[in-house]
Amino acid sequence: MSAISTPIAQTAAAWKLPYRSKVGMACLIIAESAIFTIFVVAYLYYAGKSMTGPTPREVLATPIFYTICLLSSSLTIHFAARFLERGGRGAFLGFWFLTIALGGLFLFGTAQEWHRLIYEHGLTISTNLFGTTYYSLVGLHAFHVTVGLILLSIVFLFGLAGRVGSDQSARVEVLSMYWHFVDAVWVVVFTVVYILGR
Amino acid sequence: MSSDAIAIRAAEVGGRPWVEALHDWITTVDHKRLGILYILFALLFLVIGGLEAIVIRIQLMRPHNDFVSPQVFNRMFTMHGTTMIFFVIMPFMFGFANYLVPLMIGARDMAFPRLNAFSFWLTAFGGFLLYFSFLGGSGLYGAGSAPDVGWWAYAPLTSRAFSPGHSADYWTIAVLVSGFGSIGTATNIIATILSMRCPGMTLGRMPLMGWMTLVMSGLVLISISPLSAAQIMLLVDRYLGGHFFDTQAGGSATLWMHFFWIFGHPEVYILVIPAFAFASEIIPVFSRKPIFGYPVMVAATVCIGFISMSVWAHHMFTIGMDSAANTFFVLTTMAIAVPTGIKIFNWLGTMWGGKLQFKTPMLFCVAFLFQFLIAGLTGVMLGTAPFNWQLSGSYFVIAHFHYVIVGAILFCMFGAIYYWYPKITGRMLNETLGKLHFWLFVIGFHLTFDAMHIPGVLGMPRRIYTFEPGRGWDSWNFIISIGAFIQGVATLLFLANLVVSYFKGPRAGNDPWDAWTLEWSVSSPPPAYNFAAIPTVESRRPLWDRKHPEDPDSRYE
Amino acid sequence: MNLSGVEWEGVARRAAGILFLVLGLLLAAGLCTASTPGENPVPNIFEPHSTPADSIFRLSGFVLAITGMIFLVVFILLVYVVVKFRARTTDSPHEPAQVYGSTQIELAWTVIPILIVVVLFLATTRVIHAIQDAPKPANAVEVIAIGHQFWWEFRYPALGIVTANELHIPVSDPANPTPTYLKLLSADTDHSFWVPQLAGKTDLIPNRVNTMWMDPHRTGIFLGQCAQYCGTQHAKMLLQVIVDSREDFQAWANAQKQLPKQDESASAGRNVFETTACVNCHAVDGTMATGRFGPDLTHLMSRSTIASGAAENTPEKLRLWIQNPDAIKPGSLMPAMKLSDTELDALVRYLETLR
After folding, report:
1. Which chains touch C (3 or more CB pairs under 8 A)?
2. N or C: which end of chain C has fewer CB within 10 A?
3. CA nearest C328 in B: which residue?
4. How far apart are CA B248 and CA C207, in angstroms?
């Protein structure tokens, strides 16, 4: 039994610690950033060092449209979270769905690009260093987008069932942190692959 | 009643089926139980890893010995290293962090109890998978089962061409999965420390264990991830025809080395910083004084965390980097020696002017100080690149890092168990057996690891299943092996003490050591909810304040 | 003298520590005393016979001196603290003075180590530069060393020589240095070239070119072995560096450049050699055998060992090696040649002619 405890009332108001889920998500983001950094380093290190096969310049087409889709989804999720905070469930659901749609479009664009690269240019993960590093980096990102979309969809379904209200806005905020992270990673990947790496 | 179940035996409960108790343990999300699971897991693998070491030392007792084949030997040293690092020390440290941190900061559990359980079981699965490799898989030249590529798994030795079969995959996936578990636990620890401290416990009033666990967890986040990334790349190479480390296609063997050691060096700080934490809790209590220079200890630890990310290529001095790169890494390595070394002075300063009680936990900590000093100094030697060009890859390096891992870390781990066993189980460990364990282990340790420096200096490389006679290595190897056997006996004594004392040890009470941090304010073992009422603290040593109301710490901080 | 309050554990601990220290000093002293040159096969890093090894030796002496001093200071402090401040039964029951820290002391014990570290760093940088950035003289002997699992290939491009496992280099006169520069490559995994008395080790890494140099100051045989785990038989990838006088080196090189003498009595064996799989891996100058996977056998008999030092180069061992390599070096990449006894005898007789 602790005899140290004093009535908590007067100290509780002054004792404010960060929301643990936000800290947890921040930690996850830090760890994931480290993983992505290593893949980016490998990509840059091997840029121009392929011994055979198609080069980025020959086969890459800059995905401007799909990038805009993904980056705007950050905007829509931000609005969705804001609306939820204020209790606007309808607007929240609308913007949330838009986020999912934009993310889904991005994935579709990635799939389309990969299809073209594989079947028209014969570039696979085992073709050369460029193929290995490209598919790994973009693929790792696409995997994180997919996981994000699954999480967003689950929340959307809960929202449709009427279970997501302003009380859950802190948790939704945590999920949107993850989504913003995924978008930020794309900015880096885009720069490295389509701008620097050419 | 989760943790109370430890102290309650069947007779008292009255016929509770053991499957129920087992089910409770397997599905637990209580940080104390998970802590105990981690620690038991670590002790099990300590014995297994130790047996692998014994096999190695029997083979190397004399030149041209044939106790085991080269293939088996190579599997032994690979498994020994992988086991000790990933499935002994890390789980042990996470176990103690899990058990103690919530209690020390006045919380009821960790921030994410289910993530806690998930992370433990990920690690446990990784350990199981690694050892399943003895039954499945085939290694180099299809001749074996467990991985035999060394615990660093250098490319291109791990490529399909040189490691056909699945032994390299067992290494990769087991460590990858347990790595995710580690990241999960690190996240949990950070969120717990930042978000769940009791009122009044600012970060500056946390026990040093809190700070050190925080830094260690931060390091886990940013350094386990590079290893995970590299392992994913290795799997891409081995299974999808990738070329990350395929030197025939222009890939780079040194890239794996960089990625591995970007993980590998911070990893050794991940291992040692919790050991520092134990010493920083034990030494003050048995010196009857507060830790000397708490702010500097915190600052030094944080510095170590940052600098440790910049020293990694001192493991790669021999790979042919140019003089500028080598010079840079000498600089950073020398730099990190400073915050690491001055901690010894802080511990000495704590003991200075105190009233030293040489109970078993303190004995282990004093030995730690002596051995960590030597380990640090041989580390400085290895940090001077040209000297490293001779000593790297030799038995001198093995002596150095075992001096750190056994002489410093394991000694602190033993100290921690002797110190907190009463809190966890409610019973005291036998002091006589403890002292016997200590002295026997010290003798064995020094026989082995003092002697081990010599063959390194005389040209004996590491990872060799046998050595040539007449090079001056013969007698030293014999002595090293004898010391290993003695350490094995000492460890068995220790395990016996753990088991016997659980049933027969004298009851410990709340606070057998007259200590000052919050965990000693609750019963031994603590109730499931930890604290009846969440405490409020006003200094770094809340129990000192309570025991000495005329002279509380809060007056001086 | 009242001994009742003494904590004997602490004292005994200190005694043990001091004992180990004394032993350690004796060991170190034993190591550092030089032994008779030429007779001692111990590859001791503290017995340098070449400039890089010597520079390292001097630096290591400096580092050992500094770390030794640090050790003594801290060790004495530790012993003092443990003896002086141990709890005695005669003590008062009060807690000792609760000291939280001292900024001045902590500053001092931070600044002094920083200064020490700066000194060490500067000394180290000097030696790194001296060894790695040493200008290459015009008359350096160039050797390309290629690491294989589990043997060493040595090529002398300027001399047109290819040999294996035993490296001949000329002694280097300090007045007119003829160092040997090694270009280090690998055919498969990572290896490391380590002959302690001649130089620090440098790795052989596939898809990478490393260089190192050594200028031995006296003739003799210097032992080493691979120092980077490269697979099953890493332990038996042994190295011999034979430092010859200028004349002896010239004689050796000339002999290596010659074709082996044709010996009619060995034609049966030569036939076996050329019609079985031997030629897939091995080369013999002047024949149609041009395999590069295994060691060049043109002057096999000029080497004192086979299998990269795993066995003596005797007819019996050679026969055993060809018949059953696993008996000598299990896991090596030499296959067991399924030859009859007569074929084997003939083959060995042929190989014996490759001088």
Report:
1. B
2. N
3. B64
4. 7
CA distances from C192 to B256, C199, C265 (A): 17, 12, 41
The enclosing domain of C315 has a CATH number of 2.60.40.420
CB spacing of C85 vs B150 below 8 angstroms: no
This prediction has a pTM of: 0.94
CATH code: domain A20-196 is: 1.20.120.80
How many angstroms separate the Cα of B545 from the Cα of each of B464, B519, C94? 57, 15, 15
DSSP B301: H
Cβ(B189)–Cβ(B215) under 8 Å? no
Residue pLDDT, tens place only, C24-44: 666 655 554 444 444 457 999
Quickly count: other Cβ atoms within 10 Å of residue C83's Cβ: 14
**CATH of span B2-555:** 1.20.210.10
> Which chain A residue has the Cα nearest residue B192?
A20
Tell me, yes or no, whether C35 lies in a domain: no
The pair of structure tokens assigned to C280 is: 């897939």
Tell how strand C238-244 and strand C166-170 pair up: parallel
The Cα–Cα gap between B216 and B280 comes to 15
Distances (CA, A) of B20 to B2, B17, B118, B425, B518: 12, 6, 20, 20, 32
Conformation bin of residue B334: beta by default, left when phi > 0, alpha when psi is -120 to 50: alpha
> C305 with C165: CB under 8 angstroms?
yes
- CB of B112 within 8 Å of any CB in chain A? yes
Residue B512 contacts residue B422 (beta carbons within 8 Å): yes
Residue A124: list chain B partners with CB under 8 A.
241
B40 touches chain C (CB under 8 A): no
Q: What is the distance between the alpha carbons of residues A79 and A173, in angstroms, rounded to a whole number?
A: 11
ipTM: 0.94
Nearest to B195 among A20, A37, A140 (CB): A20
Q: What phi-psi label fits residue B243: left (phi over 0), alpha (psi between -120 and 50 degrees) or beta?
A: alpha
Q: Is B346 on the interface with C (CB under 8 A)?
A: yes
User: Which positions in chain A touch B516 (Cβ < 8 Å)?
Assistant: none
Instruction: Choose the closest CB to B341 out of C27, C113, C331.
Output: C113
Cβ–Cβ pairs < 8 A, chains B and C: 310
The candidate with the shortest Cα–Cα distance to C61, out of B390, B267, B160, is B390
**A31 vs B187: CB contact, 8 Å cut-off?**
yes
Q: 């940052």: which residue's tokens? A: B306
What was the pLDDT predicted at C260?
Answer: 86
Query: CB distance from B287 to chain C under 8 Å?
Result: yes
Is some CB atom of chain C closer than 8 A to the CB atom of B553? yes
Range of the domain at C140: 40-88+102-257
Question: What gap in Å lies between CA B277 and CA B347, rounded to an integer?
Answer: 11
Residues of chain B with pLDDT under 50: 1-5, 10, 139-140, 142-144
